[in-house]
Amino acid sequence: MTIPFLSVRDLTVDFDTEDGVVHAVDGLSFDVEKGTTLGIVGESGSGKSVTNLAVLGLHDPAYTKISGEIVLDGRELTTAPRRELERLRGNKVAMIFQDPLTSLSPYHSVGRQISETYRRHTGASRGEARGRAVEMLRRVGIPHPVSRVDDYPHQFSGGMRQRVMIAMALVCDPDLLIADEPTTALDVTVQAQILDLLKELQEQTGTAIILITHDLGVVANAAQEVLVMYAGRAVERGTVREVLGTPRHPYTWGLLSSMPRLRSSVDVPLVPVRGTPPSLIHVPPGCPFHPRCDYQAQAGPDLCVGDRPELSPHRGHGDACYLTPAHKREIFADQIKERL
Ligand code: SF4
């Protein structure tokens, strides 16, 4: 059996706060292979960003307790010294964020910021690093890179700034790129261009990508595998075709039913998931989705509030719900499919 490039097993992340312990991630497992994209989907507070900060080692050990395994290219990261994690960041793993303005310094030219990252990790000379910055701006589609390398972030549009962020993230040819809501702040045409750019760069370099998003439409366009998270746990996992074509978990049905579709008739109403995500300090017992779920009666209400359902099977299309496969097929065909 081949070992996945990134393997996360039974990851748990807890934070100490004044109000109590936040159970941000609880028993999460997933794999990412080189050259593929995993979409991690969920509402705010579902634990998707925290998971990836843990992969990057960007948590504060004074307040955070992490258990489980994060193995990147054969190296266990949860026990790795901070110095090694710092070396890995930028070199082997890089991240792009939703808002480039908060990630790019307004006081330095984009060329300087890209070349400093390159110099820090490779020891290249100033001249070599500047050449690399121009090359990266060209690769991400910034017109006239030789003159624009000396421009400042505010001189670029939102879409172009996101391209600069991608150039900075990829300047050291990382093997894993974590993209946290990279297109949320952009309008739809620029969003499509950025997703196409990531795909194109992935084809050239074989980089593995984790794409964090609340938008299943983004996942449909950009990922091969998808993990749906709720209250710090994985509730459904599979290929994009499986999870978006024949979703099995009531939360995934809710996310899909609340998504506008270009091809749907205007008579088909959007049905948001009722209620709000739970507090991660007081996670509901049993299935954490039960206070918002309309299908407890079919599953057996005692079951849903009793034990926590586990994600099964271990590989392939799996979900964490007590409904029987026959019930899931029936409900999906009778009530959900027509909304999609
Ligand atoms: Fe709903 Fe019960 Fe399934 Fe949870 S286990 S999603 S509460 S039916």
Descriptive notes:
The protein has 340 residues and is α/β, with parallel strands linked by helices. Among the domains are: 105-168, no CATH class; 248-339, no CATH class. It is built from 14 helices and eleven strands. The chain has helices spanning 48-56, 82-91, 100-103, 110-122, 126-139, 145-148, 158-170, 188-205, 216-222, 240-245, 250-257, 296-299, 301-305, 325-336; strands at 6-17, 20-32, 37-41, 64-72, 75-76, 93-96, 176-180, 208-213, 225-230, 233-239, 318-319. The longest helix has 18 residues, at 188-205. The structure holds iron/sulfur cluster.
Write the layout of secondary structure elements.
Blueprint (H helix, E strand, L loop, with lengths): L5 E12 L2 E13 L4 E5 L6 H9 L7 E9 L2 E2 L5 H10 L1 E4 L3 H4 L6 H13 L3 H14 L5 H4 L9 H13 L5 E5 L7 H18 L2 E6 L2 H7 L2 E6 L2 E7 H6 L4 H8 L38 H4 L1 H5 L12 E2 L5 H12 L4
Parallel strand pairs: 3-8, 3-9, 6-7, 7-8
Antiparallel strand pairs: 1-2, 1-4, 4-5, 9-10, 10-11
The protein binds iron/sulfur cluster (SF4).
The site of iron/sulfur cluster has 13 residues, from helix 12.
